[in-house]
Amino acid sequence: MIYQRSPGMPKAIREYGCYFMALGEAAAKRNTSHLYTVKDFIAVYEKSIESGWMSEDCFIYDPAAILMAFGLKAEFVGKFHSFDRVCGDGEFEIVHYKYAPRNWDHFGGGNGMGFWTYDPWGVSITFTQGQFHSKRVFREIA
User: Fold this and answer.
1) Contact (CB, 8 A) for 127 and 116
2) pLDDT digits (tens, 9 = 90+) for 8-44
3) Sheet of 116-118, strands arranged across
4) Rounded alpha-carbon distances, angstroms, from residue 57 to 25, 44, 45, 46, 81
């Protein structure tokens, strides 16, 4: 599995790339015919900046375009602040947690019900001790 701190990752991904990494992991999970490498992540990172889908410090403007660059056709369904929005068939989520004592935010892959399953950091305090804040739901397009 590839993480933010994997050797060779650019500094911006290591520091701020959790949402970007969660998008890449979502694509990798669904495209099992391709084994993603750190080089793949760096190529999509560079293309995302050049195309205006993401800032250099990994602020995401167009997550669906980034998913497409990773090889996954998906549309953004919406941002939800409740566990009540469960993912349906063909949907997946990126979860957003907050750790209040340090004012940290962190994104990762979710299980469809608001709980994290992929932590781009490996094992982060924000996921293990923080609180659910929101989820971004996507739907795969055939």
Assistant:
1) yes
2) 999 999 999 999 999 999 999 998 888 999 999 999 9
3) 74-80, 131-140, 91-99, 104-110, 116-118
4) 19, 14, 10, 11, 24
CA distance 115 to 37: 26
| CA–CA gap between residue 99 and residue 105 (Å, rounded) | 7
Token duo for residue 92: 């997946």
Q: Write out the two tokens for 119.
A: 């932590």
The predicted model scores a pTM of 0.96
- Per the DSSP assignment, residues forming a β-bridge with 119 are none
Which residue, chain included where needed, has tokens 């924000």? 126
* Nearby residues of 60 by Cβ (< 8 Å), 6 or more positions away: 19, 20, 23, 53, 54, 66
